[in-house]
Amino acid sequence: MSTRLNITKTHKLFIKGAFPRSESGRSIAVTDASGHVVAHVPQGSRKDLRDAVVAARGALDGWSARSAYNRGQILYRMAEMLEGKGGEFAEAIEAMAAVKPRTTKKKTTKKAGARAVPKPLSPDAEVDAAVDRLVAYAGWADKFSQVLGCHNMVNGPYYNFTVAEATGVTAVVAPDGPALLGLVSLIAPVICSGGTVVALASEREPITACIFGEVCATSDVPAGVVNILTGHREELVPQVAGHRDIDAIHAANLPKDQGQQLRDGGPDSIKRVRVREVADWTDVQECESPWWIEPFVEMKTIWHPAAS
Prior knowledge:
alpha/beta, 5-stranded parallel beta sheet
């Protein structure tokens, strides 16, 4: 009679297509609601962040030079691989769901400036929504430029048009919950446009981000396009805000002070900062819009001589 082994997994960071431990040697024990240790994740350091940014910068030219069609294919492959690991994701989400209330069912009138409260999701529903989110942005990869760009009417013998190009390296700061869907929803618009990502996982539910790194590693995503760190936001958010080789920040549903830290760091290091408040991560009209891509592209206008 065989005995099933139950090994507490030690996850790694995901940097430049590899799975290194934190250079600091630190780790975090992730516990469920009963206090049982379900996994260990690295406690990423400032050096790990710098390494991830270097990897993302090195991958940028190659990724942005790929055809939009190819980027869409890779995003679709990511969706396939995520779905294939759906059971593992659902199990991780279920293990962490009771650690702290993920959502509130009490209906309240939202006050101006109040933080969004995500709608409750079952583990299977969250996995399904994350798969659908990747498929949606796979479809946008070769279409968003037509929506965001334009043909400009000019007075003169010129053909004048505006096209969208990736801004560069974007730091993603994921919400505490829904950890998987939130992370995927913030990453997908950036890589869809040809940008590269350094993502800081949910602090409360980091396991799904570690598993998502395994999805990226088996989905034809070039090394360095997506890099994933786990750790404490209190330590890493100030470094993200001030890092001068990060071109943009995409975050959502953060504590007020951390969101403000990111906004304050933007002007000094000349980066675009978008900190969202999302109440319903399953709202496709909001979360699968090309306007989620727009903050992470630059508009280039081209003048071409035309025959009169």
